[in-house]
């Protein structure tokens, strides 16, 4: 019995020592304690040089992880297995995170650079008072097209996509809200419409678009459009900027009926264990010089008014990506439709995709 006791004591002591060594190693490498910040962001959505600069200036080690959809991000944070300190969800995801109590209120007194954000992009419906979120990037949904291949069509209206001259020549981003929103907007309805006859009318019109649709695709849409594998694409403005950088023949427009105005935002999830460091990082990203550098790297539109003044005129003055007030009035932010209605939207979108076969 004494021998057995000695074995248990030895095993326990060895385990205790190993735990201590592991904790020391993690601490020495910056993976525990107050000098660590875990960021959860979209892929390639920040200038890596800025992460290095933040670490050098603050002594806080950054652990950077990525997600490829709001739904994946919501699931990971909802499970609570990883202590994310800062995340960058889109506006409709923030509404859902608020409902599920997944966010920590921000302390605005620790964000003096918040004054740099354009007031037009503050206090929006998905987070009134910016209690939980700060704008990171924004943009629109619109049409990328190749004037050399579209026979004079100007795409001022969504209805131009139904032109029979575009047969088998349109690529659509694989997004339920984007495609359904296009259908609804083309009929003069809100892209947040939940009226069933309106939704069915949008589906019927989208099915009439089928002959013109070459494919519904994911990230490869950027390469395919840049390589002129199709003449037209329904895309997000940031992707449009990247595509046009690869092929200068292409142009981008938001049709006159209106479209989506989207925001990605910085938040502190409930999983955060380094809230002070999270505030420091958010405030760092709101610095005009930092925000301007990040904007040039990412290519999306910045909500930082002070940063915009530092950008080259060919960026800040490009009305395709910084539309005037008149167009902004015709843009809508996605509302959180709720689980049942979102599932219905997904079903309608699936019916449309099945009509392409």
From TrEMBL:
It is found in: Periplasm. Gene3D superfamilies: Periplasmic binding protein-like II. Coiled coil: none annotated. InterPro entries: SBP, Sperm_putr-bd. CDD domains: PBP2_PotD_PotF_like_2 (cd13663). The keyword Endoplasmic reticulum does not apply. This is PotD/PotF family extracellular solute-binding protein. It comes from Paenibacillus medicaginis.
């Amino acid at each position: 019995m004494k021998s057995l006791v000695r074995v248990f004591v030895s095993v326990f002591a060895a385990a205790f020592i190993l735990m201590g060594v592991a904790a020391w190693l993690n601490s020495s490498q910056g993976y525990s304690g107050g000098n660590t910040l875990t960021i959860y962001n979209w892929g390639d959505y920040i200038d890596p040089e800025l992460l290095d600069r933040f670490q050098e200036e603050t002594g806080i080690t950054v652990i950077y992880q990525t997600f490829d959809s709001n739904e994946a991000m919501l699931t990971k944070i909802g499970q609570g297995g990883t202590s994310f300190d800062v995340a960058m969800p889109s506006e409709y995801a923030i509404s859902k995170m608020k409902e599920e109590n997944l966010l920590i209120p921000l302390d605005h007194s620790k964000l003096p650079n918040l004054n740099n954000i354009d007031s037009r992009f503050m206090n929006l419906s998905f987070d009134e008072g910016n209690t939980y979120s700060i704008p990171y990037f924004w943009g629109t949904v619109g049409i990328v097209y190749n004037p050399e291949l579209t026979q004079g069509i100007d795409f001022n209206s969504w209805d131009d996509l139904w032109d029979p001259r575009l047969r088998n020549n349109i690529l659509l981003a694989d997004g339920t809200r984007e495609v359904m929103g296009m259908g609804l907007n083309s009929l003069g309805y809100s892209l947040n419409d939940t009226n069933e006859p309106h939704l069915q009318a949008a589906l019927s019109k989208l099915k009439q678009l089928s002959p013109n649709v070459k494919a519904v695709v994911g990230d490869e849409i950027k390469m395919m459009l840049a390589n002129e594998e199709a003449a037209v694409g329904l895309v997000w403005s940031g992707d449009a900027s990247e595509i046009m950088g690869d092929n200068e023949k292409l142009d981008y427009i938001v049709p006159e009926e209106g479209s989506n105005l989207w925001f990605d935002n910085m938040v502190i999830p409930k999983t955060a264990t380094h809230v002070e460091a999270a505030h420091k990082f958010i405030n760092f990203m709101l610095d005009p010089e930092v925000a301007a550098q990040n904007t040039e790297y990412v290519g999306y539109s910045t909500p930082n008014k002070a940063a915009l003044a530092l950008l080259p005129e060919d960026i800040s003055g490009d009305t395709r990506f910084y539309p005037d007030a008149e167009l902004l009035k015709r843009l809508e932010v996605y509302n959180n439709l709720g689980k049942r209605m979102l599932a219905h939207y997904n079903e309608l979108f699936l019916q449309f995709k099945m009509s392409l076969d």
